[in-house]
Write a structure and sequence with these properties.
2 copies of one chain form a homodimer. Chain A is 30% helix and 16% strand. The C terminus of chain A is likely disordered. In chain A, the strands form 2 sheets. Chain A has a 7-stranded mixed beta sheet. In chain A, strands 2-3 form a two-stranded antiparallel sheet. The radius of gyration of chain A is 18 Å and the shape is globular. The first copy, chain A, has a single domain, classed as Zn peptidases (Aminopeptidase). With 256 residues, chain A is α/β, with parallel strands linked by helices. In chain A, helix 5 links the parallel strand 6 and strand 7. Chains A and B meet through helix 1 and helix 6 of A and helix 1 and helix 6 of B.
């Protein structure tokens, strides 16, 4: 991997997005906090903008109102003519595309950090579009070096030939932070503190990059989706099985 | 406490209710299972009826659609003239009152067991209306004796002078089972197995009672609500504090 991440220009337009899913509370609470007190997002060379991505879902404490906002940033949704019957999240994706994009344009934000939680015991997961986002890969490596004692895995979400669809795909570069386990609608202080520290470290990395710091080449392990495995289900679609009690939460415990 | 619980007659009409809150998955999944395979709810002297209390909230995997069903069983809601604009849960409360009640009538079910989860680390909590429900108190004592190694606390929810409002208040006697911690919308196998065992033990107790078994007098510890303590909040109502990370989940760990 190259020793200095692209793009060559300093990053000035940076956003930190919470509440893309309205019941993932680390990002919801941090975005609300930074909207009142944005000083924590300032660095000498830039000031990151806090964004509450899905206010309606956040108010309802639901993942989304009509459809998943984090799947709505496709060209089909973003370029279609607006209609009063459009799903709320499609309308909101267009608004965010105006604010942070337009996607794939020179006017798009330089970097978007998108904050998520999961009920899965996966610790910290860094979700990038693909390894072609070299800046995001260097940021992932930097974050892993900050807390080597914690599991911090890199997941590359884009499948071959698939169009990007996430909030952070609107920007020139971006990364999702996925922290778990945390129940939906519940705020755990440990994950809140971890998310806050990760965001601070990411902004510090951008500051280092803007100062002209050189970052050495590296190799890193990353995960891709191989397949989806659903729970066993009945003919009517109800659950017919659960995670075995001896395995539940063990992913987290084993790796810590 | 009297050595033989009231009422003096055998209990024939018994219901086990899940999904009163649509995202508390132990009861949702058990009710769905028993609706397909009710044999597990049969005892020699009676067959308990499985009920999915809030199908719309269960389908949406939400606590409720319009208002909390488990607060809707008041005489004001149950006796008001039906109106097309009534909240879904008020309409549903009237339907359940027809099925399991009418509340405070001789036709009401003998016993209703209502299955809940909480995200709080409280282990097993048995929620009764008041200590005046002597049958429920004897059942609580029986359940505590079944698994003395597990925390199994009794909570009396009714405040002095307050009208009962829960699903199980429709029956002549009833009890809520509240198991945690479990994230909303998530099914943990350990809590599912615990809930299933508690229901089986409760039905076994009713069978023993119906056979004429005498139950010795006892004393028991029970909890009442003293006051509500909200999280600290900002002027706009947002959270301004969380449970301390060193305290989170410790309630459960300390008592196990």
């Amino acid at each position: 991997m190259c020793s200095r991440p692209e793009p060559p220009e300093p990053l000035r337009r940076v956003a930190v997005v919470g509440g893309t899913h309205g019941n993932e509370m680390s990002g919801v609470c941090l975005a609300r906090y930074w909207l009142r007190a944005p000083g924590e997002l300032q660095r000498p060379s830039f000031s990151a903008v806090p964004v509450l991505a899905n206010p309606a879902a956040t108010a309802a404490c639901r993942r989304y109102v009509d459809c998943d906002l984090n799947r709505a940033f496709t060209s089909a949704f973003l370029t279609a003519r607006a209609h009063p019957d459009d799903p709320y999240e499609v309308t909101r994706a267009r608004e965010l595309n105006q604010l942070l994009g337009p996607k794939a344009s020179g006017q798009a934000f330089d970097f978007v950090l998108d904050l998520h939680n999961t009920t899965a015991s996966m610790g910290t997961c860094l979700v990038a579009e693909s390894s072609h986002d070299v800046f995001a890969m260097h940021l992932c490596h930097h974050l892993q070096l900050q807390s080597p004692e914690l599991p911090c895995r890199v997941f590359l979400y884009q499948l071959p030939g698939e169009e990007s669809y996430s909030v952070h795909s609107v920007a020139k570069s971006g990364l999702g932070l996925e922290l778990g386990p945390q129940p939906q609608g519940v705020l755990r202080a440990d994950l809140l503190a971890r998310m806050r520290a990760l965001v601070a470290a990411a902004l510090d990395f951008i500051q280092l990059f803007n100062q002209g710091t050189a970052f050495p080449a590296f190799e890193m392990e990353a995960y891709r989706k191989v397949s989806s495995v659903d729970f066993p289900r009945t003919e009517t679609g109800d659950l017919a099985g659960t995670v075995h009690p001896q395995l539940q939460t063990q992913g987290q415990l084993a790796s810590r």
